[in-house]
Amino acid sequence: MFQYFREALYLVTTAVTNSRFGKQFSRLLLRIHVQRSSAFYLTNVALILLGVTSLGLCSAAYAPTDMAGGSLRTSARLTLNLLLLLCASV
Fold this sequence. Notes:
The chain is built from two helices and two strands; from the N terminus they run ββαα. The chain has a domain at 38-89. With 90 residues, it is of the alpha+beta class.
């Protein structure tokens, strides 16, 4: 799974000609192999947003004139869309 490099750590000195101060400095170089895992992004971001987006299509099942909403007499379609907007922002 992981590949280790033999020469992952270098201790070198800089050239005097490259120095702004005309001095030689020590420099430590470290080589690290990093690999990104796409499974984390797919499960924690893409699938959640896909679910919220697909549930947004459920609001098409309600008629725009449907007034069987909550206590403020809002439509069920508007209530569902606001709920999905709140879920997507969290």
